[in-house]
Amino acid sequence: MNSHQVNDAVEEFHSTNGFSDLISKKSAIHRKHETSRKEEEDVTRLPALEAAYTCILRELGEDVDRQGLLRTPLRAAKAMQFLTKGYHENVDDVLNNAIFDEDHDEMVIVKDIDMFSLCEHHLVPFFGKVHIGYIPNKKVLGLSKLARIVEIFSRRLQVQERLTKQIANGIADTLQPLGVAVVVEAVHMCMVMRGVQKINSRTVTSAMLGVYLSDPKTREEFLTLSQRA
Description:
Helix content: 40-55%
Number of strands: 7
Order of helices and strands: HHHHEEEEHEHEHEHH
Largest sheet: 5 strands, mixed
Distance between the termini: 49 Å
Shape: elongated
Structural class: alpha+beta
Radius of gyration: 22 Å
């Protein structure tokens, strides 16, 4: 960086509220770049989705012209686009170079990551917690990126079994660790609000890769640590 660039940077710093404004500005630029493709696609598809929801309400016997429903098709269309925004994202989009060289070969666990998704069979929610463990192979991942990977795959029409495997494979493909373990615990509203209506049921799925699959002691250590309060 030459002297002119240094002076420009200092001047920008003093003309704002310091680090917080600079960070916010750069983050906003990054978010805009990251979401511009999705927003453009959403805008073009919104009218068709809105019309579809209008048709659904009408076929249910509702008066789509009554006050409470006038903007419901539009709101529902936007909500569905948000709930399925993972279709527009991939792991590389959210990592933002947050892979770091680190000589660490012990287990890393992030547990109780909130997860919300939609069952692809009935389009109703399932939600719960995700527990992730991995053993680095000379590289570690920014901890928040694990939650972002969960978000990418959960914001799609899903089944829990596939979601669990996609999270594990996404981490493995990105980081090439010695092993990855993922456990998902979720409540499915398709079993609570309809069908068998079992309000206390939970579904638990797991995906084990690398040493977590081949070494029972490593797998047991993860399961023990991830289930501790």
